[in-house]
Hints:
The protein is of the alpha+beta class and 436 residues long. The chain is built from 13 helices and 8 strands.
Amino acid sequence: MSVDPSSLVVTLGAAVGALVLGVAPQVEVEQAAAVSHTVQERAGRLLEGVSAAIDSLPPGAQASAEQVVTETSERLQAEIEALLPEDAVSPDEGVGESGVGETGSDAKQVGTIEPTYSTAVTPMLPPAPSISPFTSTAPDVPIGAVAVFAPWLKKAGTICDGITAPVLAALYSVENGFRYGPEAPVSPAGALGPGQFMPGTWEIYGKDADGDGKADVFGIADPVMASGRLLCDDWNLIEQWKKDGRVVGDTLSLTLAAYNAGRGAVLRSGGMPSGLPDYEIETKPYVGKILAARPAFERMLSPFMALEIPAQASDLGQQVIEQAFRYLGLPYVWGGGNIQGPTGGGFDCSGLTSFALHAAAGIVLPRTSETQWHVGIEVPLDQAHAGDLVFGNWQTGGPGHVGIYLGEGLMVHAPTTGDVVRIGEVFPDMRARRIV
């Protein structure tokens, strides 16, 4: 049976409205969690049906239909979350573990921790928004987490043709949920950082990629580039083994299996590792998860692929950007945000810059865009560095808007009521000031 895309969207909109409007707007605190759970259950059943309907559309209509229903589902998610008291919305706690890998000289190169978000992990990334619920294979990873890693995923994805940025992103979502920093969890097998490197493997592949003078397994740049090099080495080796008739199978699948179980496991099995329980319960599902998540990350990373890693960016400038990226997708709230983070559920433009500068460099800015304009020194916009502030919407009292410059004519900012923290083009009237 064919499905008309416009009818599908109208039907979904009506259903979402019924779901949301059917809930009393004034919900007692003690009832909020139960009501939200009920709405989510009903929404889940609806979304399953819509996903099947989208799959039945002609290929040319699926993308546009999915985009519209995704936007609708995000509105539903916002309505659901609004039912919960602020202190009842918290990330999942606990860390799941899968398998311990091989032993001996071909020991598991990296450990795998299922991605959850624990309050013990810093930096903490907001739990929403995540990938569309209509993508059944998409991991529950905040867009802000991916954005922080995106420039380095892009760079590492150019080392060889076989390993792309979406592959690396999918791998990192499965390995450790993009969690980084000195308090990021270590696997029971001793695997470290967002790339889950065993110490011996890190000694070989860990390099200083961002020029800060150290190879930091708990950082972002160094592990991502190390993963790119390791995967490309394995890719080339497996391609040669296939030519020699020593292994058979899809090269990418075998490369991912080697990252998890070791190259020796691939060679001994003549292809996908098999014969041991760890291979069956860990390695094969691990490869399947990454391959299934790759299309979702292709869509997720597309807005960031135009961004370069500016050569002139200072370490502090990059940290300012990373702090702002943590909250991509968070709603604009007039007067929202301060040095501690979002308030009232979001940020306004100067609240975002206040938070990012303080979180990255300990700098306390005045609260408004007009007063922030008087901090630091003005630089020509064509000489602005990543992490500089850019000001626009000039009025009698000064600038009415402020954002954080990314390079390539782009900024991250909290635009206006009804919008969210996002990446956008620098306004034509903008001027730049260097704070860090």
